[in-house]
Records
---
Amino acid sequence: MTEDIDNLQTICHKVINQKDKLHMNHNKLAAEKDQLQASYTSLAKERDQLQTNYDSMKSLRDQLQINYNSLAEEKKQLQISYDNIKTQENLLQTNYSKLTKERDQLQTNYNNMTSQKDQLQIIYNNLAEEKKQLQISYDNMTSQRDQLQINYNNLAEEKKQLQISYGNIKSQINLLQTNYSRLTKERDQLQTNYNNMTSQKDQLQIIYNNLAEEKKQLQSSYKSVRTEKEKLQREKNQLQTSYNNLRYQPDQLQREKNQLQTKYNNLLNQRDQLQREKNKLNEYVQEGWKSFSSSVYYISSERKNYSESRQDCRDRGADLVIINSKEEEDFISSLNKVCNCYAWIGLTEVREGGVWKWVDGTALTTGYWERGEPNNNGPARNEDCDPGSSILDKLKTFDTGGQ
């Protein structure tokens, strides 16, 4: 991306250089105006000398030729600028395509993870809001570009005014030529050698016509070059607009890529965490624990009282089971049936009597005592601690270690 920024800065410098060239052209036109003014003064002083008039017209022809050559050179410079911008556009298009492919790859990963994480929809809405903010920034840049276009139009208007001044000077030259022709006729009437002077006059007239024709041709070429220059300028403006549009797309795609990469990494971390939990559960299962829902259960083969059983559970990093659902109760009952034994559960009666609580301190809210239970007639002869009877039949309530 740093290389792209450097390319953009280079293009900006080129645009500034083109602006400076236009300013130099403006100064050059002003100098041409001064030269034309000097020619006008010279014609006013030398209107009585026909040969001097011929030299002045020849000088004017040379000046037009210089203008033509200058415009041709300017056309060549504009063509070079056009080619440079076209090359930069192709480079930006290549970068855009590359970033688009990367974005598509990340989008594929994103779609695969979407089924595991619905929260990505909220993240997408945040990205849409960021896109809206970027659009506002883009509008601001467009306003700045329009301001630069206004400045360029002002320079073009000044150039147009100079062209009008050039046309006025040309009209004055034509008026002087008319006056010159009138004075020539008066001089011919006073001259004795009328035929010789007439012959010279005809020759000069032919030369003048040739120069006028050359002037028209140069003027036509000047207009053609000017038209082509305006066309190239319009193409340049269009390319500049396309360049500005492409300039911000890579930044936006890069931000989207970074956002998606971050979310992708978060999902990978969550997947790893779930894998670690799964591996831990597998270790418990391999040690003889039984899995149900998201917990594992263990029934010891040793016979112990309530306190010893609970301490054994704690030593294993667990505690006597707390039953939270009918399904869990059925599962623990099935474990008791398999081993054909009683097992302590994490339910005990508070000393005041009559209030049953789980080992985490919560009160028993749902129980399925058998009729006449609890009655202190169980295997422990003391049913302040339940050895597995509180939901279904007196021992249908499982007393197991659970984690």
---
Amino acid sequence: MWNVRGACRDLFLTHAKEIVTTQHPDIFIFLETKSDASRGREVMKFLNYDDCRAIRPADKRGGIWLFWKNSVDLIDFDAENNHFHSLFHFKNLGKEAMVTGLHAPSNSGARHMFWRNMQEDLPPPNSPWLVLGDFNEVTAQSEKKGGRPFRPSQCSDLVNFMDDAGLVDLGFNGCPYTWTNARHGATLFKRDSIVLWLIQCKEVWLSHPQFSEFFVSNWKPPTNDFLQGRDKFLSSISNWNHNIFGNLKNKKKNIMARIEGIQISLSKHYSRFLVNVEADLLQELNEIYKKERIIWAQKAGINWRKFGDFNTRYFHTLAKIKKSKGKILTLKNDAGFWITDNNELKNLATTYFTKLFTTSHSCGNLNSSSISNIRLTENEKRLLSAKVTLEEVHHNLFCMDPIKSPGPDGIQPIFFQRHWTELGDSIYRFCLSCFDKGAVPLDINHSYVALIPKNSAPTNIS
């Protein structure tokens, strides 16, 4: 269960996905979604749940979503504006249990009436019942810190409801407080919720504040030649990636552990310093989530900017589909036998394409009388013999897709596009040299040839 305080916020999906990935809940309840059922169904699909129910918000306030997976069956569902009752059959246990999700009113009068109504509508005795939600209430001084002193009378209706229903507080793990008013000095903490890496240049490197300086430095004098600068970059990028950029998974794990420690410490005594540190760590965590999205989008071979910032699972799925579609694990040879060995598959493909691009026809003498008298105009001759210009090189570089078709060196066009101001002269002089010599250096002219299957399950190369 999670009080999201608005399910349309930019970072909501990222944090929700993290919870699902780490906790694996079969049933997930969202409170204060401030969103309708259509948004709920979108989120349900994104988080890979199988079905959902939604309570609409009232005047852009409130709203509850209930998500569940096929490991449980929903038998019955009844909802009011701020709570619901659901009856689930748990397949692994072979039993049924009622699950109630609620968001108690923030107004004290309405909240007292809410608990009285709940007390009058109890399930049959001995029925398995789980009640969870945002109670907007505490039942002891130990459940809050700061603010006004606790008064037993303020929670009397909640206590009566719990006693009559025979409900027991299941306790908690982690930080004892789940809410803060975030005010400087007079901070109030409350526990009012029950909550049950192929070297390919990575586009995400461009987001690191030290990458541009590192990248451009490889072409600075005396290493002014384009090819020398490229080779220098390729020989040093692995070390930079490991020691400067770092492992995102480990960084995320460390940051989350530090945040948890800070929250536990804040629950014991308020510290403005720790509040500021927590805010900085949350910002770092959000930056890591963004970097992970960029990495998976690049693996999928698509421009993540066209699909929004919050589709990590979409990019992940596309990358997996792209990888699986490109794999050929077995083929039949000319004799009709299945081949599974990788080296034999390579030889089979090489032999086929060698024959395909080889002819048995002999060369004939070309009859010059059949050639039409085609001549170039003086202007066409001038254009063909003219030197390539800086503007032409710039135009063609920026016509390339930023993240598509890296060669064996793994450097994609976006790296040179982003640093044209610093490297444009070196790139231009290299292109000019190729035109003057009439040849491109072999090591930079290498490229990948991808054999793409025309159907989902090929049996022969044909």
